[in-house]
């Protein structure tokens, strides 16, 4: 017998199998790529009639495509056009500006629908757990990325204070997010001007006199998780020189073996070796890639002044081993880019260590047992890995589980229940539906056009909602 904790609703009483008149109502929580791919997979089959509510706490869809992919990657961000087509499906209803947990509890949501798919991602940062990490001038990559993509919850004051007058930056971690951060901080104002970054972001970045950006790996170049395309891009920056110490590219036998069997690693090494003869001439920014250094503490009294690092070596299993040799890297901004973890949604189990919702092929587990009618997809299911496209396969697996459960009679429609949007409106919530999002989209395009750009992101929740209200008043 599945175990459902006392604070959770009992599974919806079985009524009838889904039909055209009474489709299976599915709420998808999180309208990022995983949620949109889940909605898409639900509507691309005709075995089980469905009606999908795609809920997001922001008034805007697209999750990390809007607030994660770097604004200077317009081709990657263009995937939103494809995602938008799934939002327009007649069986999908976008319901933005709704926070599951505060506007409606999970238990209440579950009473409105026959199944819930959690796709709300992994929005929290991981910490280094070292002295000085809380000093002003120490930021998580999530803080900086939220700010430069115009996320309404970004802590503007803290990020802008950290960027004021900054010359030397250390980015901890050698994944793709670290490269995004290093690249954005190294770009010239002219390179950033065509992006959809909010104007204040462009202004603050233009005023920051960055001269030195160091990307720091605690292991060697063969263990870095960045991908070659993203790495290679660093060499094309208008006013920055990429620098690599050739001594740090020498590999131990284990790393040699890794390079021989992993194409991403061998390609990364080839790119890095191509830069080993670069010298620090020309260019405003020296962008250094350093390896075999792990941060021990952040130095400074009232704000960050440097990072003390310990030299490392990798053992036969590729683990970093401290050598006891210490070094200080000057820095007035330290950005930790060491991964993401999932936020616990009130009423939903999240594994503390992995930051994911326990699941089996997308079926949520509570106390080790499958919880009927609850599913997960995307980063909250598998952890923060992979590019946007990986979520498609991942969401399909979850929806296959859901549809199999529907076919087995585990999921049945509970008969007439109140409409979710009516319930939310009655309690004073202002859900943002597809046409409302279109009004926001139009307002951003118009703002961009007024500055000769394709789009400028509206970064305040109130401004986003004002665009919705203004469109409603006009119609
Ligand atoms: P990631 O690839 O997992 O990188 C995390 C980095 O942090 C690793 O280098 C890791 O080193 C390091 N790290 C972890 N704990 C550390 C510690 N205590 N001290 C020092 N270093 C530490 O994660 P991510 O960069 O956040 O990216 C998340 C996902 O998004 C990835 O799948 C990425 O490819 C994807 N993404 C893709 C793009 C793109 O395609 N352009 C852009 C952004 C993000 P160890 O390996 O030693 O643990």
TrEMBL record:
<comment type="similarity">
    <text>Belongs to the ferredoxin--NADP reductase type 1 family.</text>
</comment>
<feature type="binding site">
    <location>
        <position position="100"/>
    </location>
    <ligand>
        <name>FAD</name>
    </ligand>
</feature>
<dbReference type="GO" id="GO:0004324">
    <property type="term" value="F:ferredoxin-NADP+ reductase activity"/>
</dbReference>
<feature type="binding site">
    <location>
        <begin position="218"/>
        <end position="219"/>
    </location>
    <ligand>
        <name>NADP(+)</name>
    </ligand>
</feature>
<dbReference type="InterPro" id="IPR055275">
    <property type="entry name" value="Ferredox_Rdtase"/>
</dbReference>
<feature type="binding site">
    <location>
        <position position="386"/>
    </location>
    <ligand>
        <name>NADP(+)</name>
    </ligand>
</feature>
<keyword id="KW-0274">FAD</keyword>
<keyword id="KW-0285">Flavoprotein</keyword>
<feature type="domain" description="FAD/NAD(P)-binding">
    <location>
        <begin position="25"/>
        <end position="190"/>
    </location>
</feature>
<dbReference type="Pfam" id="PF07992">
    <property type="entry name" value="Pyr_redox_2"/>
</dbReference>
<feature type="binding site">
    <location>
        <position position="379"/>
    </location>
    <ligand>
        <name>FAD</name>
    </ligand>
</feature>
<feature type="binding site">
    <location>
        <position position="64"/>
    </location>
    <ligand>
        <name>FAD</name>
    </ligand>
</feature>
<dbReference type="InterPro" id="IPR021163">
    <property type="entry name" value="Ferredox_Rdtase_adrenod"/>
</dbReference>
<dbReference type="InterPro" id="IPR036188">
    <property type="entry name" value="FAD/NAD-bd_sf"/>
</dbReference>
<keyword id="KW-0560">Oxidoreductase</keyword>
<keyword id="KW-0521">NADP</keyword>
<feature type="region of interest" description="Disordered">
    <location>
        <begin position="1"/>
        <end position="21"/>
    </location>
</feature>
<feature type="binding site">
    <location>
        <position position="230"/>
    </location>
    <ligand>
        <name>NADP(+)</name>
    </ligand>
</feature>
<feature type="binding site">
    <location>
        <position position="34"/>
    </location>
    <ligand>
        <name>FAD</name>
    </ligand>
</feature>
<dbReference type="InterPro" id="IPR023753">
    <property type="entry name" value="FAD/NAD-binding_dom"/>
</dbReference>
<protein>
    <recommendedName>
        <fullName>ferredoxin--NADP(+) reductase</fullName>
        <ecNumber>1.18.1.2</ecNumber>
    </recommendedName>
</protein>
């Amino acid at each position: 017998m599945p175990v459902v904790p006392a604070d959770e609703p009992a599974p919806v009483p079985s009524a009838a199998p889904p039909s055209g008149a009474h489709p299976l109502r599915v709420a998808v929580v999180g309208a990022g790529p995983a949620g949109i791919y889940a909605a898409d997979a639900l509507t691309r089959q005709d075995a089980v009639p469905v009606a999908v509510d795609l809920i997001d706490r922001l008034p805007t869809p697209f999750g990390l495509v809007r607030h994660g992919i770097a604004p200077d990657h317009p081709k990657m961000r263009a995937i939103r056009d494809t995602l938008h087509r799934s939002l327009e499906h007649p069986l999908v209803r976008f319901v933005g500006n709704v926070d599951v947990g505060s506007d409606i509890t999970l238990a209440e949501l579950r009473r409105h629908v026959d199944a819930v798919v959690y796709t709300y991602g992994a929005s929290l940062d991981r910490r280094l757990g070292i002295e000085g990490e809380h000093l002003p001038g120490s930021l998580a990559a999530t803080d900086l990325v939220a700010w430069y993509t115009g996320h309404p919850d970004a802590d503007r004051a803290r990020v802008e204070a950290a960027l004021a007058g900054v010359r030397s930056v250390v980015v901890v971690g050698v994944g793709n997010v670290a490269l995004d951060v290093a690249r954005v901080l190294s770009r010239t104002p002219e390179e950033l001007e065509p992006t959809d970054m909010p104007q204040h972001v462009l202004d603050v970045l233009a005023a920051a006199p960055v001269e030195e950006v160091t990307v720091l790996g605690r292991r060697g170049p063969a263990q870095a998780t960045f991908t070659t395309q993203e790495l290679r891009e660093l060499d094309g920056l208008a006013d920055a020189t990429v620098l690599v110490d050739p001594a740090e590219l020498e590999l131990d036998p284990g790393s040699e073996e890794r390079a021989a069997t992993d194409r991403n690693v061998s390609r990364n090494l080839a790119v890095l070796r191509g830069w080993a003869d670069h010298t620090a001439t020309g260019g405003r920014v020296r962008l250094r890639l350093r390896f075999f250094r792990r941060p021990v503490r952040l130095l400074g009294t009232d704000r960050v002044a440097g990072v003390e690092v310990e030299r490392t070596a990798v053992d036969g299993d590729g683990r970093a081993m401290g050598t006891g040799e210490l070094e200080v890297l000057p820095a007035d901004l330290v950005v930790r880019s060491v991964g993401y973890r999932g936020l616990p949604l009130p009423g939903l189990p999240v594994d503390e260590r992995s930051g994911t919702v326990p699941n089996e092929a997308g079926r949520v587990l509570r106390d080790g047992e499958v919880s009927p009618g609850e599913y997960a997809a995307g980063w909250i299911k598998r952890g923060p890995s992979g590019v946007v496209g990986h979520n498609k396969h991942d969401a399909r697996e979850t929806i296959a589980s859901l549809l199999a459960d529907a076919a087995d009679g585990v999921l049945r429609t509970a008969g007439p229940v109140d409409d979710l949007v009516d319930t939310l409106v009655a309690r004073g919530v202002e859900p943002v539906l597809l046409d409302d999002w279109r009004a926001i989209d139009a307002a951003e395009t118009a703002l961009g056009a007024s500055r000769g750009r394709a789009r400028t992101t509206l970064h305040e929740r109130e401004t986003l909602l004002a665009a919705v209200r203004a469109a409603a008043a006009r119609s």
